[in-house]
Amino acid sequence: MTRNLIIGAALSSLVVLAAVMSFVWTPFDYAALNIPDKLQPPNPTHWFGTDHFGRDMFSMIMVGSRTSIAVALVAVGIGMAAGVPLGLTAATRKGSWLDELIMRGNDLVFAFPSLVIAILITAVFGAGAINAIIAIGIFNIPVFARITRGAALSLWEREFILAARVSGKGAARISVEHILPNVANLLIVQGTIQFSLGILAEAGLSYVGLGAQPPTPSWGRMLADAQTMVSFAPHLALIPGSAIIVTVLGLNLMGDGLRDWLDPRLRVARS
Amino acid sequence: MTFRSVILAASSVLAMSAGLATAKDSATFAMQLEPPHLDPTSAAAQAIDSVVYLNIFEGLTRFMGDGSIAPGLAESWEISDDGTVYTFQLHDGVTFHDGSSMDAEDVKFSLDRARAEDSTNAQKALFAGIESVEVIDPLTVKITLANPNGNFLFNLAWGDAVVVAPESIEDIKTNPIGTGAYTFSEWVQGDRIVLERNPDYWGEQPALAKATFKMISDPTAAFAAMMAEDVDAIANFPAPENLPQFEADPRFQVLYGSSEGETILSTNNKQPPFDDVRVRQAVAHAINREAIIDGAMFGLGTPIGTHFAPHHPAYVDLTGNSAHDPDKAKALLAEAGLPDGFETTLHLPPPSYARRGGEIVAAQLAEVGIKAEIINVEWAQWLETVFRGKNFGLTIVSHTEPMDIGIYARPEYYFQYDNPDFQSLIETLNVTTDPEKRTELLQKAQTIISEDYVNGFLFQLAWPTVANAKLQGLWVNAPTAATDLSAISWTD
Lengths: 271, 492
Known about the structure:
The complex is a heterodimer of chains A (about 270) and B (about 500).
Chain A: H1 3-24, H2 57-92, H3 97-111, H4 114-125, H5 129-138, H6 141-156, H7 159-166, H8 171-207, H9 219-226, H10 235-262, H11 264-270
Helix pairs in contact in A: 1-2, 1-10, 2-3, 2-5, 2-6, 2-8, 3-6, 4-5, 5-8, 6-8, 8-9, 8-10, 9-10
Chain B: H1 3-22, E1 26-31, H2 46-52, E2 61-63, E3 69-71, E4 74-79, E5 85-90, H3 104-115, E6 130-137, E7 140-145, H4 152-157, E8 182-188, E9 192-197, E10 210-215, H5 219-227, E11 233-234, H6 243-248, E12 252-267, H7 277-286, H8 289-297, E13 302-303, H9 326-335, E14 343-348, H10 352-367, E15 371-376, H11 379-388, E16 394-399, H12 420-430, H13 435-451, E17 456-468, E18 471-472, E19 489-490
Parallel strand pairs in B: 1-10, 1-11, 14-15, 14-16
Antiparallel strand pairs in B: 2-3, 4-5, 5-7, 6-7, 8-9, 9-10, 11-17, 12-16, 12-17, 13-17, 18-19
Helix pairs in contact in B: 7-9, 8-10, 12-13
């Protein structure tokens, strides 16, 4: 285990823990307004202070992590569920019209600036967490399709695949039984990275008001609300900003660490 | 040269440059919304009036900064004893910006155009009582009304009633030609509108030679532009939380005024369960106005209990009818057959009074069991869905037209309040000229809508203006949408 992996996993699990905890306990009701107590800096009662409506920021950050994780997780799920089969299929028919169709289609999606299209999707179909998930998910598809195809292509040249083919297994069966387990490591690493990008994208969409709608807390919207108050209540921006940084940094470090740890070639070198 | 004389010399240089700075004769005003076009007589958009009213276009009468009505293009007038015939004497020597002279024919044309069948005027009701407009001589106009109208001079002061030139109508939306002290210079879409002093103005020459209206929609950008002194004044500053910072800074002044904006929780009176007065009353008692004013507006705003401006002499304080009382709200809901509350929608347009106020209202309604789903909308979408489509449960909006209690007499108006008693009351009011009688009727009207809980009455929108400390003559209050440039100047 590398140091990156340990630090990354620690930061990430902190966030996941906060999200899980928020289902059973938060210090205060995250939605309870208490206007006389507004804009308090962090103190022993309100650990992260209170926002402009007097809501407890710590509770909001906890519940907000739920929104971030849920959106990013489902978006990565969509990307994997659609992207991996597409990549595997393209690899079985390398150079065919099908391969071309899938990969050029992916290039097309890839060519769009993802956040701008996500804004378009939510603007047309309405703001909300579900549409944000779909918008972010669509742009995860080509990422997973490409990485799967690339890895699968090199595997198709290997002797053990040749052996499987000789034994009469079809392309689909080989893809699932032999190729997929061998690209799984790569997918896990990429999934971690995409997860962190998903959290950033969710924060971005919420910031422009197109993510989860109030009163559901969301880190991005907390940042947007803080905008005009930064000069006299900096904690309003610093706290959700730090939450995003910790999460994204943690996931990236973890992805990096996982890659080193799971890569068979590096593993050989280590032993 | 001694050290002392160096300092003296340096300070005199400073004094000179300061002297040059005060010779400034232009000013930049920030606006949040860009006008759709520049014809005040064919759209309701307040942004149009903020630029052109009084500056480019003038009417027979005009609003003053304190809300009173003063002579405009009409020098004087006579009202017949029965109150139905108004004879206006026009100012001599008034010319339009294209050089043609302004006379009685232009007044007739403007009023006939505004009240015509196919007119696109946004406030046609202002002219509804006019029976005929006659030209007596080039400087005299006679207007005959069907019934006496105590508000007629007030109606003529609106931006929707300005005098336009017949030959300029074609291009009025992009090239407005009026009689005002400023001429239209240029409009860079999405950025700015520039007006220049009209050297041929019939009245006194104003101090500012050039005025720029800069479009800045984002509150953060408005704050930054003001702090950097890129703009000289922002009326209706969009972020009340930033006002203390401007107040603490000697470079700026903050004027706390009041607008004509009754900010209300508009309720769809035709949509169940809001067609039941008990449900509307429950909503009214669920709301805590103080918390909304404090939380959404940082304390700026006056609570209202009806649709009427508190600074108006005829105002009655009816906030007691809808005092914050969650238990009573719950009891009323149970009485109306909704002990577990109900679900509805809350459409919120972009201004912070709506977006922030809406979050607070939703939380307060939740306390009595009413689940209001927040739907944030842009203005275009709000007009489409809520205002025209009437497809909403609740919405928060500020009604900024002055003296607009008459909208409650229009059953087709978007909140769809239909009360024949109220409608006949307003009809009586419209033909009443006796000031005491009018006050009495106005107070009765306020009481009816308050006791019918037509809408949730929240607060009168404040009108904070942030300006450079050296700029003087700005309107403190906003009796109508306007930037009266001729009153504005730089101090030494």
